[in-house]
Amino acid sequence: MSDALAIAAVTETLRAVLGDAVRRAVPGARVTARHPYDAGDADAAQAGPALNVFLYRTDVDAAWRNTDPVGTHPGETRHPALALALHYLFSAYASPGEDSTLPERLIGAAMSALHDRPELRADDLRTAADFSDLHLQQEPVKLTPSALTADEMCRLWSSLGGGYRLSVAYEARVVLIDSSVPGRTPLPVLRRGEAGAGPAAAPTAVAPWPVLEAVGPSVAAPGSDVVLSGTGLAVGTPSVRLTHLLLGGPPVVLPARADTAGAVRATLGEDLGAGRWSAVVVLTDADGAERTTRPRTLRVAPRVTSPLPLTVVLDPEGAAVLEVTCAPAVHPGQRVELLVAGRPVTAEPFTRATGTLRFRLAAGAPGRYPLRLRVDGVDSPLVDGDTGRFDPDAAVVIT
Fold this sequence. Notes:
By secondary structure, this protein is of the alpha+beta class. It folds into three domains: 6-177; 211-300, Immunoglobulin-like (Sandwich); 303-398, Immunoglobulin-like (Sandwich). It has helices at residues 6-25, 36-39, 42-46, 62-65, 102-116, 122-128, 150-160; strands at 30-32, 50-60, 82-93, 119-120, 141-146, 167-177, 211-216, 219-220, 225-231, 237-244, 248-260, 263-267, 275-284, 290-292, 296-300, 303-304, 310-312, 320-330, 336-340, 343-346, 354-361, 367-375, 378-379, 395-398. Helix 1 crosses helix 5 (102-116). It is globular and about 85 Å long. The two termini are 31 Å apart.
């Protein structure tokens, strides 16, 4: 996700990406971001050849508009992000009397650059537009040519009030701007009914290939045991292979041991990162051949290591800055929120792996509120494992 400066960030990044390309094709060429009428005036013409980047239209992306906000759990409500498609016009300008092929060389260099790099990478966004957090958006901003007919191009240039210049249209999609409307994240339900259990179904035949059906508990803590249950898991020496769904990287291989006839047990490492992991069971026979199950999702919870309850003081503007330490460390690109009662607060941007996070809670009110840390949709523990009730220390006291 990103902030309201994301549109300007796309324009600035396009200028930077295209600048390198056009200067290689035409030494001394510039990339500007002006209205096409102003880009073609006499002063601009004297400055030399230029490629102008102009945002002429924005559209709301209908598909993303109907998508649930990232990180929303069942029972929670959040205002959806503003999903935009940006329409750009790239036009080429040359000084009077210069070679008439200069505009063609500029347009060719720009199109070639975007053909080779059809999306704006996070590194490019961070370098060219550090005033925005668009580089943290998980969905890439992709660039595709827009096919405008001769009539559409003619009407576009007529509305811009200038004579036609050699130009090409491109679309940048999708830019997701976070809503500033606070969401609502109610506390979890501790028990449903007397037993809270539904019907269970089991296969009547043995599967020819090992099948992983469930991973429990549903949310695990680093250093704890997880039980992976299914069918056909008793043939061979078991191990568990974990891959982080967001961060990727080399798989984490854990030794496993038989728990029951249809389950294996493994112990998670203390430094296993928080968030969602893909878990598979690997069965190795005496000849070294491996059979692997299909993956299931394992959710690893973060742990708040700050002394709790946390105490903060409102500033003169009625806001509170909360500094929270956690383990394991979180990484750039992960979505980190602090849930203060039913209100989610996004972490301030960070550029490297860190165990110290800052949150600014605007318009806070004095009181004591339950506190949860959410990393990639996985919450830190709020329930005391011994009593089965909400942990009274997992809270923030605002004064």
